[in-house]
Specification:
Elements: H1 2-90, H2 94-106, H3 112-125, H4 129-142, H5 149-162, H6 171-188, H7 190-202, H8 207-219, H9 223-233, H10 239-252, H11 255-267, H12 271-284, H13 287-296, H14 300-312, H15 316-325, H16 329-341, H17 345-354, H18 358-369, H19 373-386, H20 390-402, H21 406-415, H22 419-429, H23 435-445
Helix pairs in contact: 1-2, 2-3, 3-4, 3-5, 4-5, 6-7, 6-8, 7-8, 8-10, 9-10, 10-12, 11-12, 12-14, 13-14, 14-16, 15-16, 16-18, 17-18, 17-19, 18-20, 19-20, 20-22, 21-22
Length: 446
């Protein structure tokens, strides 16, 4: 029995050993398969995580760009209201001017201090002196460091002196006559005319009057006239006059004037002033200084402005070199505009075909469309055939519509299989007064 029992135990041990020999590799293999599956799952998860992170980064970039665009649109809207207000003053439409400037005041726009001044000025013209004084008080209290304070105090004195007195409707004509008289005196006796012009600048004359005074001073070769212009251009007056002085100095284009603008540019921290100087450089033909700003400016706004001015100066090659080095998407968008201004279709096509940003490709295509079908029509069609991005294809359709290129649009419509793209093409053709487009519309109806 013992032997039998031992044999039974031995047999059992042998069986267990053999089973283990069979099971262990299976378990190991299963473990390896599980580990491999886990690695695949982790790899898939990692790829999904990277994709989600990329999408979040893209969405964040788009939100930032949208916010930037909304901010620019808001600034443009405020600037438009300001210009409308000044234009209303020039036409003696005082109520309209008050309404425009009030929008800026209530919105606390960037030029709200100037709007308060011109609103007070317009109220005074309507013989509404108490309201004019209130507007002046708002300016003095709310913007004590504004460069409009001196003008506001001068206006306050004038308003108080005229309180209760009717306003003469001939005031506008009197200003014109006064300026004609000073222009005549400028030719005959500049030394006597310049102090009178200075007085007009420091007084409460209309915007147009002060601008014309600056223009007269800019034409003068007298040392005192240049000194007055320099003082105003350096910021020795309100911002509106400073911008005009910079513009008129740039129009003269002399070496001393360009040097003066360079000194003001270097010393100023005001983006608006620097932008105006870049435009003055363009008017003076000073490509070297504009290129220096485009290359070294830290402000994206100013780099973008410099790119636009270079484009207007026909510096396509320089603009393209800067595009390749630029990393800011907004500035690159402005460089595309500069390439368009320079008439550089070659490099615009490079952007449209190869840039990694679909938005910049679309912008380039839009500008190519504005260059005319004879010049860029075939190239735009090639972009449509090569690209797969729907947004880029839509931009091509829009560009061909801008060119009124009905023949190409009809050809695209006939072979396009994407329903949405074909609908977009047909919608554009329906708006085109072309026999080709009309015939295709009839074809569709049949």
């Amino acid at each position: 029995m013992v032997v039998m029992r031992n044999r039974t135990v031995g047999d059992w041990v042998t069986a267990v050993t053999m089973a283990a020999a069979l099971i262990v590799p299976c378990v190991a293999a299963a473990g390896q398969d599980f580990a491999l599956d886990e690695q695949v799952r982790q790899g898939d998860q990692s790829a999904r995580d990277r994709e989600r992170e990329r999408e979040r980064a893209e969405q964040a970039r788009e939100r930032t760009e949208q916010e930037r665009e909304r901010g620019q649109q808001s600034r443009d809207r405020f600037e438009n209201f300001y210009e409308q207000g000044q234009s209303a003053i020039e036409r003696a439409q005082w109520q309209q001017a008050i309404e425009r400037f009030t929008v800026l005041v209530d919105s606390k726009a960037p030029r709200a201090d100037a709007a308060l001044y011109w609103r007070a000025y317009s109220l005074d013209k309507l013989n509404r002196q108490p309201e004019a004084l209130t507007s002046v008080a708002e300016l003095l209290k709310g913007y004590p460091s504004s460069r409009w304070v001196a003008d506001a105090r001068a206006l306050e004195i004038q308003v108080r002196q005229r309180a209760g007195q009717p306003v003469s409707p001939e005031v506008q004509a009197d200003e014109e006559l006064k300026l004609f008289a000073i222009q005549g005196l400028q030719h005959q006796d500049p030394e006597q005319a310049i102090p009178m012009l200075e007085k007009l600048l420091q007084g409460t004359s209309s915007p147009r009057m002060k601008e014309r005074v600056l223009f007269v001073l800019a034409q003068s070769n007298a040392a005192r006239a240049r000194q007055v212009m320099t003082t105003v251009a350096r910021g020795g007056s309100n911002p509106d006059l400073q911008m005009k002085a910079i513009q008129y100095i740039g129009m003269q284009g002399s070496q001393p004037n360009r040097q003066l603008l360079g000194e003001i540019y270097t010393s100023s921290t005001d983006v608006g002033v620097k932008r105006q100087i870049l435009r003055a450089y363009m008017m003076a033909g000073d490509r070297e200084r504009v290129l220096a700003a485009a290359t070294s400016e830290k402000s994206p706004q100013l780099r973008a402005e410099a790119m636009r001015q270079l484009g207007m100066m026909g510096a396509g090659d320089e603009v393209w070199q800067l595009y390749q080095k630029e990393t800011d998407a907004q500035v690159r968008g402005q460089i595309i505009q500069g390439l368009f201004m320079a008439g550089d279709s070659t490099h615009l096509l490079e952007v449209a075909n190869n840039d990694t940003s679909p938005d910049l490709r679309r912008r380039a295509i839009q500008h190519l469309g504005m260059m005319g079908r004879e010049r860029t029509g075939d190239a735009i069609l090639n972009i449509y055939n090569r690209q797969t991005d729907v947004g880029v294809k839509e931009a091509v359709i829009d560009a061909l519509f801008i060119q009124q290129n009905a023949e190409t649009l009809v050809a695209l419509a006939r072979k396009e299989t994407d329903r949405d793209l074909k609908r977009r093409i047909v919608a554009k053709l329906a708006l085109m007064p072309s026999p080709v487009a009309r015939d295709y519309m009839l074809e569709l109806l049949k």
